[in-house]
TrEMBL record:
Residues covered by the SnoaL-like domain: 18-128
Organism: Pseudonocardia ailaonensis
Pfam families to which the protein is assigned, alphabetical: SnoaL_4 (PF13577)
Name assigned to this protein: SnoaL-like domain-containing protein
InterPro entries: NTF2-like_dom_sf (IPR032710), SnoaL-like (IPR037401)
Length: 154
């Protein structure tokens, strides 16, 4: 593989955290699952999930709880890249608006994404993703005074 080809693969790998965050924003569980290998492993606050089908189910369940959500990704670092595997780490801040009957309200968190990627045909797919959360996890912004209460009667 030429240096140019490897550089292009590195660039594609580097973009993975943003691609992942965008599919979360689109709230399409099948589209999210397509970013993963068929036997992928996802470790997150709701517990571990293995396999593309279960990852789609996991996100279908998560999206049902959100009326809206935004993920800001920053400080992505490509920690290693080869012809077949890449590793990327990124920081994330998430803002979630939960369904009205949820006790979660509006929640802000910060955390990290740690991706291990596998080259499949002509693109990177996520083979392992560790999502860690800390700091602001679980703060109800309305109760804390950081967000106004909903105005639609909720």
């Amino acid at each position: 593989m030429s240096t140019t080809d490897l550089s292009l693969r590195a660039l594609l790998a580097y973009q993975t955290p943003n691609r992942y965050a965008q599919t979360l924003h689109d709230r399409d569980p099948e589209k999210v699952a397509e970013l993963f290998t068929p036997d992928a492993y996802l470790h997150q606050v709701w517990g571990p999930v293995t396999g593309r089908a279960d990852i789609a189910r996991n996100y279908r369940d998560r999206f049902a709880d959100w009326t809206d959500a935004t993920h800001w990704v920053a400080n992505s670092v490509l920690t290693s890249v080869s012809e077949e595997e890449a590793k990327v780490r990124a920081f994330v801040v998430g803002l979630f608006f939960f369904v009205p009957d949820s006790s979660n309200g509006t929640t802000l968190y910060r955390g990290e994404y740690d991706f291990t990627l596998s080259w499949v045909e002509s693109d990177w797919q996520i083979s392992t993703l560790f999502v860690s959360r800390h700091g602001l996890n679980g703060i109800d912004l309305q109760e804390s005074g950081y967000a106004p209460p909903p105005t639609d009667g909720r």
